[in-house]
Amino acid sequence: MGKASARKRLRRNNAPSSIGSKGAFGTSIWSQAALVLVALMLLATSLGLLVFSVGPTVYDWSRMRQWQPVPAQVESVRLHVGRMARGAPHYVAVVRYRYQAGGAQHTGTRAAVDNAGDSWREFHQQLADRLHNAQRTGAPVQVWVNPTHPAESVVDRTLRVGPLVLNLVIAGFAGGAGLLVLAMVRTLRSERRGRNKRQAAAKSAT
Hints:
Structural class: alpha+beta
Largest sheet: 5 strands, antiparallel
Number of helices: 3
Radius of gyration: 30 Å
Strand content: 15-25%
Number of strands: 5
Order of helices and strands: HEEEHEEH
Strand order of the largest sheet: 3-2-1-4-5
Helix content: 55-70%
Distance between the termini: 15 Å
């Protein structure tokens, strides 16, 4: 009699949790899939910033340290103002200049190390103003030319720490968040497997 009563109490205690866990199991599969997708997007954002922004910028800057100064004449310049994907303003100095190097005439269009532009208006505005004044007065500007490939040049070879650090922070945050989400998914899966084992053991006991 005691064993029968214990089994009845065990069935009553397990019945609601079994139903609830079944619903949680169905929901957790989609939840975990969504979390994995979010984690992959965060990791892709981090990797993309490192591979397509931070890495090329540092690499180009290191190469440009060996380039030689050459006078150039500015043909045209303007400050382009656009919008980034998140709606933030985007600035870039658009320039065209000509110079003599390697026994030939060349045309350059690269204004800065990171020629894609960013949201730091002050730098691009000052660079565009300086180039515009040179164009207006006809004064030459100094550009930096690759001695081994004279067709490659840049006006400002400064490594801008602000945008670089910002991209590194964003990449680190996105990568860390992605890894944290993956760890959370792993924990949820472990808990679900443990819950399923306990339920299987409870059913076998009845």
